[in-house]
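task queued by scheduler; priority normal; single chain, no ligands, no partner chains; default sampling; output format set to structure tokens
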Amino acid sequence: MQKEKSNLNQYPLSVWVLTILLTPIVMVLILVFTEEKNALVNLRLLPAFWGIGMLLSSPSLLIFILSNRFIERLSLSDLAKKFIFGLIGASCIILTFAPVGSSFAIILSVSYSLVFFTLSLIMRRESIKPTLGNEAN
């Protein structure tokens, strides 16, 4: 039973961590190629993005884990489950940045949502299928 819960938590945790790690890197790369600022200045912002991202999105992680457990109970294909999970994640991200209301918050919201949704579709999702021994219990 404990192994099943850890497998259920692995997918949302992986998508969450990779979103937080990859999105700032993508944003810095975009800034490097679109603006004439020094790339080193943008690179110094990465730890701040990672730390603030983990802090502000930790409530969303709980929602991701709980929603993934609910989604797992649905009799849908893995792709449909990933799509639903991606939509839930994008919604949480948008709600996280909504109170800020600035144009930069909109850019962050869209960036994180796109990366999250993409990762939710391409990452391997472990479905927990009951074994014959578990069905008897």
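post-processing summary
- The CA atoms of residues 71 and 79 lie 12 Å apart.
- Confidence is low (pLDDT under 50) at residues 130-137.
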